[in-house]
Specification:
Among the domains are: 37-266, P-loop containing nucleotide triphosphate hydrolases (Rossmann fold, 3-Layer(aba) Sandwich); 275-436, 3-Layer(aba) Sandwich (Rossmann fold); 547-579, no CATH class. The chain has 814 residues and is of the alpha/beta class. The N and C termini lie far apart (103 Å). The chain has 29 helices and 22 strands. Helices cover 42% and strands 12% of the residues. The longest helix has 62 residues, at 665-726. The strands form six sheets. The chain has a seven-stranded parallel β-sheet, with helices on both faces. A seven-stranded parallel β-sheet has the order 10-11-9-12-13-8-14, with helices on both faces. The chain has a two-stranded antiparallel sheet with strand order 15-16. GO terms for molecular function: ATP binding; hydrolase activity; RNA binding; RNA helicase activity.
């Protein structure tokens, strides 16, 4: 039955019913409203003129409601300089080359135009990939993806993160459903080459964040190959803290009349104004001492320490961690697993006080909140790298401080490069009371831990490699460095011997990507920028054994050189240095000391009651052997413990003089006899009491057992009498043929005396194992019924065959 409702009018009469809209009509009207909104949005963008119109807030921009609400929910209100200049041009569809200081908000400058472009195109999951964002490092890609999730929470686009570290097959299954992808160059190129059905022909927008790093030599091949897969008709946005405008770069990326937006060129400096920048001149062997003293003086700070190679990062982290500076330490390099890198990034971002040792893998674009100090232990390769490193602090109007460690040979050239980039930097000196020499501690740690010594050797080799490979020879002068002092400062017993091989393209070798070494591996590198050394390319068609694969693993344990020796290979070929560096000869500690003209100092070590003279390395190694040291230790003595728990030797002898002072021997003997006699009497009394107590307990148990047996027999007799005279129904346990099952038990002989005196249990009689000769009783064994059991008493133990026959007859008699 249909029902209707009447609405009451304002004057008391019935109001007119509004005609109902069908679902189809509602959808049509909604679609029309959306089209009208889109048309208004397009007109507003066409009329937008950033030069004549002052734009300060995001509400002043012609953005859709989904983007506006996402920005409002993420607490983004005021535009930065780069955003105010780049977003209006990008909304109009122009290609952009954007350059601004670190921490100036470049991420939103390309994410907002990307979302708006896909929204105006009414992009759906059936249209395929619409926008591609390329980042040089995994950490920066993760950060961009998180910002995209925040501001795009109200959009219906699907977005994915492709950065390697996971199975290529699992990622390939989801790529076809993504509208937006944030990726690293190497991993994306893998999917374009290997993933079947991955279509990018409808791409609308390409974004390259930190473009100068992506365009570097290490990524040039990957970027060129990646661009070949993308359509020509697209919008391209390039952003970086330092930007290049070379014709070759623009031609390679197929930019169409790009707009160059450079905010920092209008400023007086290329770094943030609220960043305090300093440098100290310290010799290479003293850099770790200065770093340790700095960390110990700033325990309530958040610090990032940059090194030039991952091996140096690992050595500094392991050494400082064992020395316990008093604050949490972390380390981050490109060789780590993806899960570990993300976890370390999260922990450092959440920490209030911490120190992060890192390579340039986190020097670009990564936003760590509230970083107080940026320390550059190794000189950056150029001024642009310096700008990116110090940009990890003083982010967007916050304060920060940076310190650069320079060797005296690097001071003049590096300061000239920084001056050309309008970077103000001041010299400071370290106070004498703040210097903390740690050379002896590092030597002790390397002596105790072979794996730390191995890391120190690798840190030395990779540092020398990085200096040799630098292009700017006016700054990096290998011959002026004190390498022997640096090796000693790392705790090494001697300087590793290195042979240089010339004729290689140093820049290409240093930045060679590793993604093509194992393209199908889950943990294959994606070219994320942590080029710590030139890795030698392996032959893919070569069949390698398990031990060869084990030898190829780098920096996992100290046994890699051992396995290379087993294979008969050169120790310098498979240690990550390629053909560039090779170790001439592996020397033992004694040989290194002899080559350096050093002698082991003579010292004496006390072992128990004896002393051992240490005058050679062989004697020093003897201290690590417990078996050999045992020969010099005092032999143990056997001890006995008294009742009070005091230990005494088994035999305690006194000398003659002490014995005479105690008194006459006869008197001492008498005292000893009396004392021992008293102890014996006391022990005898205790033993008698204990035996008496045990006999009483035994008698009580026997009486209890006899009482229970008597009660059980009485209960059985009552049950038998009741069953015989009852005359009731048939018993369940009575056979059907009428035979009484208890007839056999009744036929057995019983003890009449015990039956007549059931109320009084029989008294226990003493057991007799034999009987005297004057006894008149028969020698034949006697039977007795005791407690419902048959007991056989014998006058003596069976001695012959007759006694055994008599015993058997008594047992068989009824």
């Amino acid at each position: 039955m249909a029902t209707s409702k009447m609405a009451v009018g304002t004057k008391g009469g019935p109001a007119k019913e509004k005609p109902r809209q069908s679902k189809k009509e509602a959808k049509t009207l909604k679609r029309k409203r959306d089209q009208d909104d889109l048309e208004k949005l397009r007109l507003a963008i066409e009329e937008l003129d950033s030069k004549s119109t002052e734009i300060k807030n995001f509400t002043d921009l012609p953005l859709c409601e989904a983007t506006t609400s996402g920005l409002r929910a993420s607490h983004f209100e005021v535009l930065t300089d780069i955003q105010a200049r780049a977003i209006p041009l990008a909304l109009k569809g122009r290609d952009i080359l954007g350059a601004a200081k670190t921490g100036s908000g470049k991420t939103l400058a390309f994410l907002i135009p990307m979302l708006e472009k896909l929204y105006r195109e009414q992009w759906t999951e059936f249209d395929g990939l619409g926008a591609l964002i390329i980042s040089p490092t995994r950490e920066l890609a993760v950060q961009i993806f998180e910002v995209l999730r925040k501001i795009g929470r109200n959009h219906t686009f699907s977005a994915g993160l492709v950065i390697g570290g996971k199975s290529l097959k699992d990622e390939a299954e989801r790529l076809g459903r993504m509208n937006i992808l944030v990726c690293t160059p190497g991993r994306m190129l893998q999917h374009l080459d290997q993933t079947a059905g991955f279509d990018v022909t409808n791409l609308q927008l390409l974004v390259l964040d930190e473009a100068d790093r992506i365009m570097d030599m290490g990524f040039q091949t990957a970027v060129d190959a990646l661009i070949e897969h993308l359509p020509k008709s697209r919008q391209t946005l390039l952003f970086s803290a330092t930007q290049t405008k070379t014709v070759s770069d623009l031609a390679r990326l197929s930019l169409k009349d790009p707009e160059y937006v450079a905010v920092h060129e209008e400023a007086t400096t290329a770094t943030p104004a609220n960043l305090q920048q300093h440098y100290i001149v310290t010799a290479l062997p003293e850099k770790l001492d200065a770093l340790w003293g700095f960390i110990r003086s700033n325990l309530k700070s958040k610090i990032i320490v940059f090194f030039s190679s991952g091996k140096q990062v690992r050595f500094a982290y392991e050494a400082f961690r064992r020395m316990q500076p008093g604050m949490p330490l972390l380390h981050l390099i490109g060789r780590q697993k993806q899960v570990a890198r993300l976890e370390i990034t999260r922990r450092f971002a959440m920490a209030k006080y911490s120190c992060l040792f890192a390579t340039d893998v986190v020097a670009r674009g990564v936003d760590f909140p509230a970083v107080d100090w940026v320390i550059q232990v190794d000189c950056p390769e150029d001024a642009d790298t310096y700008i990116h490193r110090v940009g990890r602090t003083a982010r967007y109007e916050s304060k920060g401080r940076a310190v650069l460690f320079l060797d005296p040979s690097e001071e003049e050239g590096m300061l000239k490069r920084l001056e050309q980039k309008k970077i103000p930097i001041q010299a400071i000196r370290v106070r004498e009371n703040k210097k903390k020499p740690i050379k002896d501690q590092l030597q002790s740690l390397c002596f105790q831990s072979p794996d730390l010594k191995y890391l120190g050797q690798k840190a030395f080799v990779t540092y020398v490699q990085s200096i040799y490979l630098q292009k700017d020879k006016e700054v990096f002068k290998l011959d002026d460095l004190d390498l022997d002092g640096y090796a000693a400062a790392l705790g090494l017993p001697g300087t590793p011997q290195i042979k240089f091989q010339k004729g290689e393209d140093a820049k290409k070798l240093k930045n060679a990507p590793r993604y093509n070494l194992s393209s199908g591996d889950e943990d294959s590198d994606d070219g994320d920028g942590d080029t710590e050394g030139g890795d030698k390319k392996k032959k893919k068609d070569e069949v390698r054994t398990k031990y060869q694969k084990m030898a190829e693993r780098q920096n996992q344990d100290v046994l890699s050189s051992h396995y290379r020796k087993l294979l008969g290979e050169d120790a310098g070929e498979d240690d990550g240095d390629g053909d560039f560096l090779s170790v001439k000869r592996v020397l033992e500690d004694d040989q290194l000391d002899e080559a350096a003209g050093k002698k082991v100092g003579v010292k004496t070590v006390k072992l128990g009651n004896s002393e051992l003279v240490i005058d050679s390395h062989r004697r020093e190694k003897l201290l690590n052997s417990k078996k050999k040291i045992a020969k010099y230790m005092e032999k143990g003595k056997k001890l006995v413990f008294d009742d009070d728990g005091n230990a005494h030797p088994v035999y305690e002898l006194t000398n003659e003089q002490d014995f005479k002072q105690q008194g006459p021997a006869e008197k001492l003997r008498q005292q000893f006899v009396e004392t021992e006699a008293g102890k014996v009497k006391e022990a005898d009394v205790e033993d008698k009491e204990l035996a008496k107590k045990r006999r009483k307990e035994k008698r009580d148990r026997q009486k209890q057992r006899e009482r229970e047996e008597a009660e059980a027999e009485a209960a059985a007799s009552e049950e038998e009498e009741g069953g015989a005279g009852g005359g009731g129904g048939a018993r369940l346990d009575t056979p059907s043929d009428g035979e009484d099952p208890l007839a056999l038990l009744r036929s057995l002989p019983t003890n009449d005396r015990y039956e007549d005196e059931q109320d009084e249990p029989p008294k226990k009689k003493a057991k007799k194992w034999f009987q005297t000769d004057d006894s008149s009783e028969d020698e034949r064994p006697r039977k007795k019924q005791k407690g419902g059991k048959k007991v056989i008493e014998m006058d003596h133990e069976p001695e012959n065959l007759q006694d055994l026959e008599a015993l058997a007859a008594g047992l068989l008699e009824d």
